[in-house]
Amino acid sequence: MFPYDKYLRRDKFPHIWCTGCGCGIVLKALLRAIERSKIPKDDIAIVSGIGCSSRTPGYLDFNTLHTTHGRAIAFATGLKLAKRTLKVIVVTGDGDATAIGGNHFIHAARRNLDMTVIIYNNYIYGMTGGQVSPTTPAGKRSTTSPHGNVEPAFDISGLAIAAGAPFVARATCYHAVQLDKYINRGIMKKGFSVVEVLTPCPTYYARPNRLGNAVEMLDWYKNNSVQIEAARKMSDEEKEGKVTIGILHDSDRPEFCEVYSQLSARVRETYKE
Amino acid sequence: MTGNEACAEAALFAGMRFFAGYPITPSTEIAEFLARRLPHVGGTFVQMEDEIASMAAIIGASLAGVKSMTATSGPGFSLMQENIGYATMTEIPCVVVNVQRGGPSTGLPTLPSQADVMQARWGTHGDHPVIAVAPSTVRETYDWTIKAFNLSERFRTPVILLLDEIVGHISEKIVYPLRREIELIERERTSRDPESYLPYENTDSDIPPFAEFGAGYRYHVTGLNHDETGFPTNDPKKVDTLNRRINRKIERYRSEIIAYSESSLEDAEICVVAYGSSARSAHRAVLDARKSGCKVGIFQPFVLWPFPYERLSQIAQRIENFVVPEMNLGQIAHEVSCATKRDIARVNRIDGGLITPDEILEEIKNVSIR
Q1: Rounded to whole angstroms, how far apart are CA atoms B43 and A209?
Q2: Considering only Cβ atoms within 10 Å of each terminal Cβ, which end of chain B, N or C, has fewer?
Q3: Of B181, B199, B232, which marks where a domain is finished?
Q4: Is the ipTM here above 0.95?
Q5: Within the 310-339 window of chain B, which residues sit less than 8 Å (CB to CB) from chain A?
Q6: Residues of A with CB below 8 A from B62's CB?
């Protein structure tokens, strides 16, 4: 049995999440990834915004910062730059990271500051009761798209890659074992890493769209996910309606803290008496 | 040097080592100065994607124990409001410089105003305290930037430094204060061990001691109403305790925070109340009025919030007439009226022009004839 208790604030349970919510699966995967990283608890900061996923830090025994809606990455940027020994992990949701926080997300990817962003993508605003989000698929129902969503959806991982994130992976809550490996890879990556997790919201996404209960949603992930290696060999028609999972992007480019430290050293050398 | 340069220089002297900002006229020189200088002193400058992110970043940096600052003007100040409230609620020290320009909206980017006085007080939502200071000269800007950091550290609260386009851009020769005579205050660090540490403890002082992230304390920070442990609560008693404490911790120290200067008030029949760049013209107008035999003095608040109601109320026991020049439609005149229970003679400009000494002098004369 994995020693989850080592990382949990047990007195903060029971948690606020609904039955069948995927947030707990991601939380446990995150803890397994952290355990594998061997980074001391005191050196880890978990930063979140607002929403269901953003309640994760409250249950975790690290330096935890629950910020304003959409701004977790911006808070994390200041924290990391001021204390570079900290390993900063942001937990956020699809609405938090790509609607209200979309600007911070793409610029953090461009800046390539060392941090890991885990985005719980449940296609819906859960905390406020099931409104349409930037990742709600076209046609799907929510309380603010009662006749079906008229807008196309964001591809979060695609957005991260396009904006310059050097490490981007996607998993689902069905693929919990892969998920902790991806999160661990993200944590160990020097630079801005993004792990997108498709996570079920049986309460607010499944119900209006008649997608069944949590188990049926996990089954859907199982049956409709395609590993990146296989997806590369598939035509666009074959990939229609499928979710590509795996390490979607892994590259190296200069990390912001390192670049800034080099700049500081150069400036001080140039101008010293 | 200019006021903006004095502000940046003073911030470095105060120990500020993290600046996050977004370009906006007429504050940009502060960011430019610090982009040059911070790498020299081991600090960090980062230009963020907007003012919301800038405000968030300086809070994050301060939580790591580093004194931090941002600088902006009206439109950016509006964007920062939510996170200013977050810093207030979570009691994370930081300094926000607003070099005021004409508004509302995009307004007059290159011209001065003093129209953000009330936004500094009530810009963020909810019942909250605030400290805002308004220097009028380059030297005062140097001194008050350092004091802004001191107040922020002492009371664990964001402090608003209200400059305006005139104070920010005017170039004046200044004599630095003797460095050994400048007091620098650091936030009180906890002496407790991590096991017994309560990040939002209801201490006798109402100011909980601070522990920085990464120092072994592993506590929780949230903008939700929280109890002494820092975790969210809906318990009415605990909510009430926190909300009242964060307001009380500023209110009970009013006399320590409030600062003003008075001149020529001893025999005065008229009191001019002026702050920021309007005080520059007011001082001149009072000198001129005195030359023509008019008994007028000047009261200049350096700290606008909390407002010096008590002192103005005392002054109003002797003096009947008050003149308040300001580059807005009477934001501080209203407070002076509350404090003095007098009708206030107002000199207001909202056209981007500064208030001239003659305009104030004319109003002083009008009042003296009355």
Answers
A1: 52
A2: C
A3: B181
A4: yes
A5: none
A6: 78, 82
